[in-house]
Amino acid sequence: MPIPLLVPALLGLAFLLLPLIALLVRAPWRSLPEQLTSAEVWEALRLSLVCATAATGLSLVVGVPLAWLLARTRFPGRGFVRALVTLPLVLPPVVGGVALLLAFGRNGVIGQWLDSWFGITLPFTTTGVVLAETFVAMPFLVISVEGTLRAADPRYEEAATTLGASRFTAFRRVTLPLIAPGIAAGAVLAWARALGEFGATITFAGNFPGRTQTMPLAVYLALQNDPAAAIALSLVLLAVSIAVLAALRDRWMTAS
Amino acid sequence: MTRSALRTGRMLQVAGASAAALLTLSACSSATGSDKGSSPGKPSGTVTVFAAASLEESFKTLGKRFEKEHPGTKVTFNFGGSDTLAASITSGAPADVFAAASTKTMATVTDQQDAAGTPATFVRNRLEIATPPGNPDRISTLKDLTKPGLKVVLCDKTVPCGAAARKALDAGGLKLTPVSYEQDVKSALTKVELKEADAAVVYQTDVRAAGDKVAGVNFPESAQAVNDYPIALLKNAPNPKAAKAFIALVRSAEGHKVLSRAGFLKP
């Protein structure tokens, strides 16, 4: 094992692991059962799970077709469109939240029509949380699915169409089963990102227990006056993250 | 060059790059260390002030004056919810001065023995209702905020403005369910400025600072929930001399002039 690689590698590993170990060491284990059985924690956890799942569902419905469009069709400005799709990946989430307010807020570019035509306002609602999370998480799914699509052999689809299947049937019956693992991995990534979403959520949807206060918001606010509760909440999120990794173990943990 | 030599060369390059990265990191930390005002006499170097979000405008003005009066100094600010700031100070954030929006959040710091000496109250602040310009919902009392269908934002109860708002509501015997508990007073005000909320309970000073972007409504219950703003030198201040000079400026007649122009009340 070459030392110049081993030393930085171990340093990097330690750097990634130490904060997590500190979380476990400093966890208020004795008061933990009490902390975790409080109604507020479960409310925040339930809301987080529901919103992250809804955001993932929404991402699947529009994200998979978007990935297909980027991977399988040619149109002018495709590279630009792809760059736009990945923009939320690099955008600070708070900026995303502000942008969402300007678009879907009560006075937003689209939001004002939603309000005056349908009486729908999105900020400060659970739907707002789902939208904020979708905005931040969907690019993960699109990128993952697009990568899988590019790696998948298009000749199967071509064969299906030459045998008389329409392009949509070929997509449904041939492409989808072919890229299912990629879609699953993308969905898990998007779900995990949605679960941890903080900036866009607090900016766009505000913070109200049971309606828009997800786990990360609860952790942040608990840290101000009750650090023990914040650590307990963090442990729950850590456990969920480990569960996600376990679900992905075939792809990453056993990567050869 | 042989293959293995090439490989070692590359490795050294990688190692060199990581060493350079580490050096840059340590250079960052030593740069802050050299800012210590170690020379006797005049204050110098950087003063780091953690201050309640409501103090932003007045403290920025005072910071500029301070830099002008003491050439060679630089005031850097960290504005935020007093509770957030207090929590970061007790967990070791390198700050010289802490100006909080309530005695309770200051107590978080003094309880941990993180303040040098006793904090001094330098101003007080009263709550006011902020509404969009022209007050479209014709809010005139605190009770009006409890009208159904009205979107009201409050500060979270851990933040001083939220604690004060709760006190005022209790004083009026009112029950109010907001649409959101914001993490500091400025984000509560922003929701009104963007017209996403119909009203917010914020400080008088915030309403004044927002100019014509919001309209203010006074309510008598606010007298029951006036916040004291304490300021303190921190025990682990990297630059105590300049910090003391900055606190002196805040508490001077000149400082009070700036603060009262922003709407703060005398202690």
Automatic annotation (TrEMBL), chain A:
<keyword id="KW-0812">Transmembrane</keyword>
<feature type="domain" description="ABC transmembrane type-1">
    <location>
        <begin position="45"/>
        <end position="246"/>
    </location>
</feature>
<protein>
    <recommendedName>
        <fullName>Molybdenum transport system permease</fullName>
    </recommendedName>
</protein>
<dbReference type="InterPro" id="IPR011867">
    <property type="entry name" value="ModB_ABC"/>
</dbReference>
<dbReference type="GO" id="GO:0005886">
    <property type="term" value="C:plasma membrane"/>
</dbReference>
<dbReference type="InterPro" id="IPR035906">
    <property type="entry name" value="MetI-like_sf"/>
</dbReference>
<feature type="transmembrane region" description="Helical">
    <location>
        <begin position="117"/>
        <end position="145"/>
    </location>
</feature>
<feature type="transmembrane region" description="Helical">
    <location>
        <begin position="46"/>
        <end position="71"/>
    </location>
</feature>
<dbReference type="InterPro" id="IPR006469">
    <property type="entry name" value="NifC_ABC_porter"/>
</dbReference>
<keyword id="KW-0500">Molybdenum</keyword>
<comment type="similarity">
    <text>Belongs to the binding-protein-dependent transport system permease family. CysTW subfamily.</text>
</comment>
<comment type="function">
    <text>Part of the binding-protein-dependent transport system for molybdenum; probably responsible for the translocation of the substrate across the membrane.</text>
</comment>
<keyword id="KW-1133">Transmembrane helix</keyword>
<feature type="transmembrane region" description="Helical">
    <location>
        <begin position="83"/>
        <end position="105"/>
    </location>
</feature>
<dbReference type="Pfam" id="PF00528">
    <property type="entry name" value="BPD_transp_1"/>
</dbReference>
<keyword id="KW-1003">Cell membrane</keyword>
<dbReference type="GO" id="GO:0015098">
    <property type="term" value="F:molybdate ion transmembrane transporter activity"/>
</dbReference>
<feature type="transmembrane region" description="Helical">
    <location>
        <begin position="174"/>
        <end position="192"/>
    </location>
</feature>
<dbReference type="InterPro" id="IPR000515">
    <property type="entry name" value="MetI-like"/>
</dbReference>
<keyword id="KW-0472">Membrane</keyword>
<keyword id="KW-0813">Transport</keyword>
<feature type="transmembrane region" description="Helical">
    <location>
        <begin position="228"/>
        <end position="248"/>
    </location>
</feature>
